[in-house]
Amino acid sequence: MRKLKLRLLAKLAAVFALAVxxxxxxxxxxxxxxxxxxxxxxLEFNIPAILAGDLLILIVLSVFSYRWIGSGDDPxxxxxxxxxxxxxxxxxxxxxxxxxxxxxxxVSIRRRGGSLMELTASDWADLAGSFVSExxxxxxxxxxxxxxxxxxxxxxxxxxxxxxxxxxxLAGLLLPMSVATLSCFFVVSTAGFEYLYGTSSRPIEIGxxxxxxxxxxxxxxxxxxxxxxxxxxxxxxASAEVKALQRGGGAFAHRPIPVVSGDEFGELAEAFxxxxxxxxxxxEETRQELRLAYQVQKSxxxxxxxxxxxxxxxxxxxxxxxxxxDLFDLVDRPDGGLVVMIGDVSGKGVSASMLMTxxxxxxxxxxxxxxxxxxxxxRLNAAIAxxxxxxxxxxxxxxxxxxxxxxxxxxxxxxxxxxxxxxxxAEEAKALPxxxxxxxxxEDYAETVERLEAGDALLLYTDGIVEATAEDGELFGFxxxxxxxxxxxxxxxxERAxxxxLELLPPSGQGAYDDDRTLLLLRVPAxxxxxxxxxxx
Length: 537
Hints:
- This protein is α+β, with helices and mostly antiparallel strands.
- 57% of the residues lie in helices and 12% in strands.
- Strand 1 and strand 2 form a beta hairpin.
- Helix 5 (174-197) packs antiparallel against helix 6 (206-248).
- It is rod-shaped.
- Residues 195-201 and 531-537 have low confidence and may be disordered.
- Residues 1-19 form the signal peptide.
- Its main location: membrane.
- This is HAMP domain-containing protein.
């Protein structure tokens, strides 16, 4: 902390020295070109007096800075003090300049052997012009000091960091911007006033006035540019952080805007950081709730490592977000058969999760009562359509497995067609097109019947699989899925086959999947294989 303060004090001393040097240069230009005072005479009194005033200003500002900064031992207290320092220096410099200007003019009058009571109207006009000229210089160096001090304290404020704290007292931009505007006005106008309204007996030379005006204008524009550039830096920093937050999406990595001033921009940065912290806490609370919701949702799905109804089963279901809209289920029928269901709710996030949970509960209620997959879909569609009224929908595939007859009856409500793997050949199983659940309450569903042989496998899946992004940037698609299934060796168990398939699919966690993905692999064991073998992920 001590090294930080010493480095900052050295920078501020250099800023103050530069500011008074600019003021000395401007006053000398005025005396030479406007007041026609020879350099020899300036060296006798004016320049020594100006330098003495400069030294006094430098000492006063440096001592004040030392006491202002040195009294802040706590990092947070130091941060607040540094944000107010440029404004404090500006106010102090202007007040000190007014006092020194008055003192300088009084001493000048006394030095000429006169008094204020003896001044003529012309003398008062010259005195007023001199005061305005000196105040113009004070405004310029005050603005310069403010802009450079603001820049000097920025690295120290960044090193102190930005954290949740009490807000800094507002030191508005009104004063520095007013000072900068007035300085530019007087810089340009005083030389013109000297030409138009000069009342002294000194000769007026347009060339000298033009030179002085040009030099003043150069100084004024430089100072004004420095102030605007410094303020623009705060605007750019805030804009960059807002854009970074916008790009952050769900990750929401809180990256606060550096608060490097006590003015309106600093207040805006503080308000933005407080908003970010509030959003961060809310987001984290929501994530915790969604994690709990996912655990509840996951517990509603059937255990994947099961062998039921004479089929080997292996399943995987992964949401693209904290909670998902994919669902699958297995229900044992009284006749020893098995009802297999896979579905996909439209949309993502919490709304899809809630509809998924309601659909799953409704399916379990109706699965044992329906005599066929088509009837089951009709029952579900009537209930879902009445509730959703077309606002959302559910695609679903339902299969009835009859172990005794080795038959698979299947009906689809707008769901992707299962893949049938027979030997080393994979192709789409039989299915009839239809509308998803929830769109038309009068939709009629039809079913297909297929006989499965020993060793055959059925892959039921959601569209997140084929809509994933492959390594070449294209959709993974149905053709690649078929080729991946054909690469799985014959005789693999459902568990092993699903593991091999996952190795051939685009890997998760690398942005390949924008949608939930669910796979349900059913396999008819070959003769002699253990039918009660547990398989799953």
